[in-house]
Amino acid sequence: MVRIVRSFWVLVAACALALPVMTKGQSSTVLVVTGSGMPEPLYLKWNDQFNKEQPNVSLRYLPEGSGAGAERVLAGTGDFGGGDAPIPEKALKSATEKILELPTVLIGIVIIYNLPGTSGELHLNGPALAGIFMGKITQWNDPALAKLNPDVKLPSTPIQVFHRTAGKGSSYILTDFLAKTSPEFQTRIGRSESPNWPVGNSAGRSQDMVDKVTATPGAIGYTELNLAERSTLRMASIRNAEGEFVRPSARTISSAALALAGKMSDDFRVSLTNAPGKDSYPISSFTWFYVPAVSKDSQRGQAIAEYLRWVYSSGERLAQEQGYPPLPGELLTKVAAKAATIH
After folding, report:
1. What is the pTM of this model?
2. In what order do the strands lie in the sheet with 123-124?
3. Which helix (H) or strand (E) holds 308?
């Protein structure tokens, strides 16, 4: 009941923010966006910089999760949404208005861990990770992990699993990878923003995940690359489709997108996990904006169009400066062209 009341008041606040206000005699538009918490630091920088250049348009970003971002835009609440997973096709087809899914930047989900007393970088693969998150691998010196890490002296420390709460895009990206690499995981859990994790403790926001793994010896969890790099935690290298152990970085995440660039459809609904290529980091993805093709209000539609034009030019350059892998050039051109049709 508390959660319902909180959601109601967040929705009321969002609707209030969405109302046009008058600034020095001119109409000022506040766009309200609900979406994933992973790209929030970037989106806040985008919003601040865009508002400096276009003071009559500002944005309020509500980081409630990918699931909430999709639900709100499908319900016609707020101006557009954001998330780290494609909206289910059934939901898109049943929507009362056409929704475009526009990639914004590339992201990588990294496996973070806290294993005091060990040196060297852990190597993990899909089946081992699936075993950990299904509760089948419970100690760090399990034979499956020792085989992947012959040069690391692994302790008998119990593995403390942390996962995200329901409706999170990072969970979708991780489970998409695990479902592709572990038939058992695909059968038992499958890919989902809200997987039914059989073990572990939950973390609400991305920073909560980092904080909990940092505070818990023996812990393992997952988060977005940029956030992990700002922490003191170590990140595992993950075996990709070519059998190479790849460390997450802007370069290796970009490699995954480039490997699949020729297979992307006009709706940009593509999975980048376990992409081919020796240098491809296998837990990579886009993060998307979910945008109505036609706004219910012409003034708001114009403001959205102006913002997206900025995102796919100045915004992409700012993203790269902040350490986010940019969209490949050919793809960026296509996405910008699709965004230009919104009104």
Report:
1. 0.89
2. 123-124, 237-239, 245-246
3. helix 298-310
Task: Report the chain's C-alpha Rg in angstroms.
Answer: 20
Residue whose C-alpha is closest to residue 149's, from 163, 137, 161, 160: 137
Total count of domains within the chain: 2
Check: CB of residue 226 under 8 Å from CB of residue 321. no
Identify the pLDDT of residue 96: 85
pLDDT of residue 177: 98
For 6, phi and psi rounded to 5 degrees? Answer: -60, -45
Cα–Cα distance between 119 and 316 in angstroms, integer? 37
Residues in the chain: 343
Residues 6 or more apart in contact with residue 181 via CB below 8 angstroms: 125, 126, 127, 130, 274
Q: What is the mean pLDDT of each run of 10 residues along the chain (343 residues)?
A: 40 42 59 92 95 95 92 91 92 90 96 93 97 98 98 96 96 98 98 96 95 98 95 96 97 95 85 97 96 92 96 96 90 95 91
**Cα–Cα distance between 237 and 116 in angstroms, integer?**
18
Per the structure, the complete domain to which residue 172 belongs is given by: 108-236+247-252
78 and 119 within one domain: no
The reply to whether 85 and 128 lie within a common domain is no
Residue 17 sits in a domain of what CATH number? 3.40.190.10
Contacts of 184 (CB under 8 A, 6+ apart): 130, 134
Q: Is the residue at 38 inside a domain?
A: yes
| Phi, psi of 169, deg, nearest 5 | -65, -30
